[in-house]
Amino acid sequence: MPATDLTLDHRTLDDAIAARRYFAKFGRILGHLDKVAELVAGRDRLEAVELDVLRHYLQALSATFEALSLKYLMSGRVSSLLPKAMDIDITDSGFPVYAELLQMANDALQVDQHMRSLATTAELKKDMIRHILNELEVPLKLQFAMSQRLYYERLAARNLFWAQNHPEIIWLGNKTVSGRERRSYAIHWASYDSQVNIPTIYLMLVDDTGRTALPRDEKRWPEVQSHLMAQSLLALKMVTIAQGFDRDFDDIHPKLFRRILVGPMYSHNFTRQNGPLEGILADAHGGAGNDWALAWTVETLTSERVETKKKGFFGKVERQIFKLDHFGGTEAETGASDVRRALILPQRPYQVLEERDPPGFRGVRKYVVSDSGQILSYR
């Protein structure tokens, strides 16, 4: 059987103008997501922390795009100096491929070494002025050095969205159940899914009945972190992840579990669409920067009830029974209690979408960005 050429799904941005247009487009899109996060944050027990968590990861994602835009600022102009141009996934996500984030993480490990070897921005600016005055030409090599200096300075700030963003925990308070006190926590983490190249944010509300508070438990907390990162795959159903966690940690009880997919991003100029969106984005004629749509999906799994089961000769443990709609089709396929899909897009593509009214988009929430930047919500 011949090998599948995965590069057919990728596009290399080896032209400086195309790379700058791509990053400018994403800069505008990510700039709208803070307001979208306010509109989509759940009205449930995670409401108190969800918006802050979403903003944390969206700001990190924006910083990652800023760093990559600096790294590849001179793409196509200094090919001999830049080892490679950036690859994006043009079919499943519209985002940079997973390997780009892995390379960024590797660069971050060596950031001190690069910062010592590169001239400062002030020195590079003086050298560029001197070169222009003396040589009467564009100082391409110095411009490249400046872009790399700024790239490593951005990495040194550390607040970026990595391929793996390890779990953090937030204490929500204590409560008493059946005469026994238990602690409530919100655990959040994120990953850049390696199969579909989509940023994914996870939140889990848990009750802790362990002797030691979970964040201070030197045994359980590292195990929880490792377990959750290992299960952070879009290929796994929500219920599969939650049941495995519930089974492996007898004194940590998942009550609400949420997965948020930030993407795919569709663009007439940069991605390959199938279905109605292809014609909609092509015909929107919204001007530069308006030929895009970003999908936003929220999957939620809730514990419906608790069953007490025997463990060993004398022990008993709580096991969660999660709510699933086995007749709902989509929810049963994802292993979630509820799936909410949304599309964020500019005003002109939205108008074309409404005019054509394709069946697959009728149940999708639309967040429409007006020319003034205001965001309106439509079903």
Describe this structure in words.
This protein has 379 residues and is an alpha+beta fold. It has 2 domains: 9-157, no CATH class; 164-378, no CATH class. Helices cover 39% and strands 28% of the residues. The strands form 2 sheets. Strands 3, 4, 5, 6, 7, 8, 9, 10 and 11 form a 9-stranded mixed beta sheet that branches. Helix 9 (276-284) crosses helix 11 (347-356). The longest helix has 25 residues, at 16-40. It is globular, with a radius of gyration of 24 Å. It starts with 9 loop residues before the first strand and ends with a strand. 36% of the residues are buried.
Extended strand count: 11
Estimate the global geometry from the Cα principal axes.
globular
Number of contiguous helices:
11
How many discrete domains?
2
Radius of gyration: 24 Å
- Model regions low in confidence, pLDDT < 50 over at least 5 residues: 1-6
On the 0-100 scale, what is the average pLDDT?
Answer: 87
The run of helices and strands is EHHEHHHHEEEHHEHEEHEHEE
* Class of secondary structure makeup: alpha+beta
* Distance separating the two termini: 46 Å
User: Which percent range describes the beta-strand content?
Assistant: 25-35%
State the helicity in percent bands: 25-40%
Major sheet description? 9 strands, mixed
Write the layout of secondary structure elements.
Layout: E1 10-13, H1 16-40, H2 47-71, E2 86-89, H3 98-109, H4 111-117, H5 121-135, H6 140-157, E3 164-177, E4 180-192, E5 199-208, H7 220-230, H8 238-248, E6 252-267, H9 276-284, E7 292-311, E8 315-322, H10 330-334, E9 338-346, H11 347-356, E10 365-369, E11 375-378
Parallel strand pairs: 9-10
Antiparallel strand pairs: 1-2, 3-4, 4-5, 5-6, 6-7, 7-8, 7-9, 10-11
